[in-house]
Amino acid sequence: MPIDQYANSFVCNLVAYEPGKPIDETARELGLDPSQIVKVASNENPLGPSPLAKIAIREAAEESHIYPDGGGYRLRSAIADSFSMDISNVILGNGSNEIIELLCHTFLNRDAELIAAEHAFVVYKLMATLFGAKYVEVPDPGFIHDLDAMADAITQNTRLVFIANPNNPTGTMVGQEAIDRFMARLPDHVVAVFDEAYFEFPDSPPDVLKYIHQGKNVCVLRTFSKIHGLAALRVGYGLASKNVATFICQKQRQPFNVNSIAQAAALAALGDTDHIAKTRAVNQAGMKFYEKELAARGLEFVPSFANFLLVKTGDGDQVFRDMLKQGVIVRAMSSYKLPDWVRISIGTEAQNQRCLEVLDSVLAAATT
What we know:
Layout: H1 9-12, H2 23-30, E1 38-39, H3 51-61, H4 73-82, E2 90-93, H5 96-107, E3 113-117, H6 123-130, E4 134-138, H7 147-152, E5 158-164, H8 176-185, E6 191-195, H9 209-213, E7 218-223, E8 236-240, H10 242-252, H11 260-270, H12 273-296, E9 301-302, E10 308-312, H13 316-325, E11 328-329, E12 331-332, E13 341-345, H14 349-366
Parallel strand pairs: 1-11, 3-4, 3-5, 5-6, 6-7
Antiparallel strand pairs: 2-8, 7-8, 9-10, 10-13, 12-13
């Protein structure tokens, strides 16, 4: 008798998260050398890891037989110092996704609600479903979070409101005034979660850390996967008021959730300001290139504050498949209810040029 009849129905009915297609898998399917593949699907850092992080990784590997510091003291202390906070405000996660899960473990149940924008990160809905909570999706006109409408949607059962800023997959960003207005309306029984995975890319991002200093029910998520280039090591962090952080860090987190190599690499990357500056410069140049070229072609795109662009191509799934055949991996957006769009990560100058050439050829072929 099939075991699935004994599994929770909400798990059986769940649509699994689909990560970007791996380079090695694509190379095998196409019979190409992996070096011939251009992957601009997962918002990764095209420059790779911080050089200082690479050194730290090699050194940390020599002690791989020893369990990691379960409390992440050195890394949490460095992060806390960076933001003039106490170590008790800092949560480490196996990627910021783990902290999302820990927040849901802490605050969600079958009577609870989670609020997010219509075109926000799909993991929010996945987590709400897994914990049996009600997922409340608020429309986002122009692909920008409508924080007034999100505040209006809060009920006595709401426990978490997720605000991705800049947002994935749209790249849009909510300004300080809208955030301040939202926070003025936030009731005590709700935690506002600001997912800031792309915080380092915009020139003037809004300040939400001030709410943590004020002791508000806020958790800010950051990651070492994007601008620091450590996606493979899965290390993220949360900044939260002490009462929120205590529940997540001390009562929910698994021991040794962030490995020693990841902690060492993140600590080194945190201080590598040169690598951060170079990454931002490459991203800004790539963004200007795409904006100019896409506009010249009459292709609609969403102006982005992150390291990717949402581009309207018509039948995004087909464009993804056709570009894949030529060794360029973009991200189809049908899972975000955007079937006519693809998301393109900013790469190196050569990667951007190659991606655009392939996109041109695919769209030209579709019109003949």
